[in-house]
Design brief:
The protein is built from four helices and no strands. The chain is mostly helical. It has one domain.
Length: about 80
């Protein structure tokens, strides 16, 4: 029995939920960002999502947003 293929919207919401759940736990905020990019890349309609590039840019530039939980929450909630 095969599972139905998720729509883009379903996958995106799953990715965002997982990322927000991770932000609520103690740990590295940048790891949450990295994992979110990996998850987005696993669906054919989100594999080139701009949030992947923006997230990597934040981490590489060592921006405050890449380590601030509230800024990261806004970033995650802001993409669609």
């Amino acid at each position: 029995m095969s599972l139905p293929i998720e729509t883009r919207a379903q996958h995106l919401e799953w990715c965002k939920k997982r990322a927000l759940d991770e932000l609520n736990r103690p740990g590295d905020v940048q790891e949450c960002l990295r994992l979110n990019g990996q998850r987005l890349g696993k669906h054919p309609e989100t594999e080139g999502h701009i949030a992947i590039q923006l997230g990597m840019s934040l981490m590489m530039a060592d921006q405050r947003e890449a380590s601030d939980r509230e800024a990261m929450r806004q970033f995650i909630n802001g993409f669609n």
